[in-house]
Amino acid sequence: MTTVQPSLAGEPGLSELLTGLGRDVARDGRVLTVQVPTAGLEPAVRRIAAHRGARLADVFASDPGEDRTPVTLRLVWGLDGDRGYLITESPVDGERYPSLSEIAPAAFAEECEIYEQFGIRPASGRPLNRVALPPWAGPEWPRLGRAPAEPPEDVHAPHHVGGHAFEFPFGPVRQVAVESLYYGLVTSGEELVDLYLFTWHKHRGVEWRLRGCTPAEALFFVERTEGLGAVGNAWAFAAAVEAALGLEPPPQAMAARAIALELERLYNHAAATAALCQSTGLVIGQAAAEIALERLLRVNAAVFGHRFLFGVVGIGGSRRAPDLAALRRDLPGAYGELRRAADALLTTNSFLDRLEATGVLTEEAARRLALVGPVARATGLAIDTRADHPVPPYGEFPPDVAVQQAGDVLARFRVMLTEAAESVRLIGEIGETGPGAGLAVPADDAAAPPGGTGLGWAESSRGESLAWVALDGAGRITRARLRPAAVRNWRGFDDACRSQNVFTDIPIIEASFWLTVAGTSR
Amino acid sequence: MTSQDTTGLTAAEASAELRRTVARLFGRSLHIRTLDTGSCAACEQEIRLLAAPHYDLNRLGFFFTPAPRHADLLMVTGPMVRAFENAARKTYEAMPDPKIVVATGACALGGVYQPDPFTHGGIGGTLPVDVWIPGCPPSPLALLQGLLVAVGRLADKVKDLDFSLNGTPR
Amino acid sequence: MPLWTLRGLRRGVVTTRYPARPEPSARLLPTPPAFQPDVLTRDLADRLVAVCPSDALARDGDALVFDVGACTACGRCQAEAPEAAASSGEFELAATARAHLIKRIPLGGRPA
Fold first, then answer.
1. Whole-prediction pTM
2. Fewer Cβ atoms within 10 Å of its own Cβ: the N or the C terminal residue of chain B?
C-alpha cells in the first residue's frame, strides 16, 4: 500500500471528495483507505453520501483487544461511479461515536451488531436491537470485542402498532425444507402491516471462529457460511487475503473462478424460479424449474467436482480446473430446460398475476437501504459489481447489467432470467480463454507485510459479497469481516412485505429475494 | 427410536424385533419433518430436491409434512446452534411416538464445527439419533438411501466398508 | 395448461430408478477417501490429520482413525498425498450407529 496525496491525477471527482476528508489516504489498487478522526466522521459521512454513485457497502469494527486501545470503526463505501471502494477508519475512544444511521439509514443494522460485539454505540442514543447473540448472552459470552454496558433491546416492530393491529412471532421452525427463520409479524388480520426479523437463532459465530486461522483454513468455513453462495463469498474472502498479501492470481485461475461464479448464479436463479412456482402453488412450473435446477447442479458436479461448487476458489487462485468438455456438452441442455420453463411461466397469466405489484420496493428504498443484486436492479438501480468494480476476467468480459423498473416480484424474476442468459453467454466466452487451476503463492523472498489488510468483493447471485481481512505478521487472521449480500438485502425484505401485501404473499416475496438466512446469521 | 419395549430379549433379538417394528410401522409410508439447527442452506436445497422429478421421494412412500404432529421422521441438519436448542427440543417433543431421528449432513454428525460457545458441533448430544447420513451436503441420492435405511428397506452398507485401498476391489 | 402437459410428455421420465437400479449420475458425486495402508507411515498420517479441516482424521498409535461422518469429501487429504488417499466412490453411507462411521486404517508403511 502506498500513501498518496489526496489529489489523484485524472480522477477529479474522487480527488474533490477526498480533499479535506481526512489525513493519510492510502491506496491499494482501486481501494482507498482514509483515516477520519471520530470528531470529523459525521461531516465526512455526509460528504461521501452526497457523492454521486456512492453507496454504503458495509460498516464494521475491530478491536485490537488490549485494554484502553480504541475500537476502530470502518465504513466501506462502494464508489460505483468511480469504480473504486473507499474505506474510512475512525478510532472510537470511549463508548460513543457519531450517529451514522441518521445520515445513512442503511447503517442501522450494523450499528446494532457493532454494539453487541464491541460495546460502542451511536451518540443519538436511539434504542438498538439485538442481532446476533441470543437474549441470554451475558457479558461473558464470546464477542469480537468488549461487551456492551447495557444489553441491547429485544427487537420490536420498527413502526407504530396501533388500531386493531397485533404482533406475533413466527418460526423459527417453518415450512418443509426451508431454513429456520424467526420473525415478528404485525397484522390487522390478513393484511401485513409490518415484519421484522430475529436473526440470533442460527448465528454460528463465524467471524469469531476465524480469528487465529490461516487464510486456507478459514476458506473452508467461509464456503460453508452460506453454502448456496459458496463461490461468491469465497471469492470475496480470497480476494481480500490476496490484497493483504499482495498476491495476483494467474489469469487462467480467475477465468475458472468466473465460470464457477456464473454457474452458481445460474443454479440459484433456477432455484429461485422453482421457489416462486412453489409459493404460488404452480406445481407443474415448480417441477419444470426443478428439472432445470437438478441438471444445472449435475453440470456443476461434472465440471468442477461438486454440486455446489465447494472447493473451487483457493487462496491465490483456483484449486480446480473446469472440465470444459463436460461444460460444453451439458450446459446448453440444462439451461434450455430453464429457458423453456421460464418462457412457459411468462405466458401463464395465473402465475404472473400473483407476481405483479407484489412486494414492491421503490428505487428510493433500494438506495436508502443500500441494497444490492437483483433486488436492487429490479427497482431501476443499475449496480453490478462485475461492471462497477471489475476484476479479471470481467474487465475483458463485462456483463450487460439487467435492470427493471417496477421493483415488484415480477421485476426481480425478470432480472434473474435476463442474468441467467447473460451468465450462459459469459461462460461461453470466458470458456474460450483457457480457464484452469492455479494458485499464486507469496514469493519466498517477499517479506509478508506486517498487519496487512485487504478488501475483496464478488458479485454473487444475491448481489455484492464483501470481505475484509487483517492478517498478523505470521499471516494468521486477526479480524475477518464477511458481508454476504444477504446481510444488506434482508433489510429490504421488511420494506417489500409492508407494501400492501397479505400473509400468503410472504413466501412469494421471500422466493423473489432468494436470500439465505445463513448468509446473514453467520 | 423411542417407545420400543424390549425387556427380556437378548440384544440380537431386540435388534431384530426393532427392525421388524420399524418396517411394519414405516416401511410403506412415512412422513418427514425437516429441522434446520444452523445449516449453511446447502443441505436444505438437496432435501428440497427429494420431491423434485429427478428423485420423487413420494414414489417410495415418503412424504414431507410441515406438521410435527403428523410426522414420523425428523430430518435434522446443522450443527445445533446453542441458541436454537429450545426450538429443536420443542419440535422433537411435538412429534408423537414412535419417531425416528435422522442426522443429516456433516455438520449434524459432528464435522465442520467443533463444540464451542456458539454451537454444539453436532446434534447427537441434544436429540436421540437413529440414522446418520454423511455428506457436505449429502446428495438427494444419499438422502434417499438414508431414508430407506431408516425404515429398514435398505441395509446399512457403510458398516462393512473399510475405506482401505488394498489393491483388491471391495 | 396443455402446453405444460405436452412438454412434459415430450421430455419423458427423468426420475431415477434408484434403488431398483443404479443411478449413473452418482459417479459425478464427490465421495470420502479410501486410504492406502501400505504407504501410510506415522509422519504421512500426521500430515493428513493436519490438513483435514473437518477433524475427520486422527492418529491413534499405529492406526489412522477416519470418521466418515465428519468427512466433507473436500479432497484436501487427497491433494496432500495422492499416493495415500483416493476417492472411495462410495455415496451410500447412511449408518444405523455412529460407530459404524469410524474406521481404523492400519499404518503399514515403512518410514524412509
1. 0.94
2. C
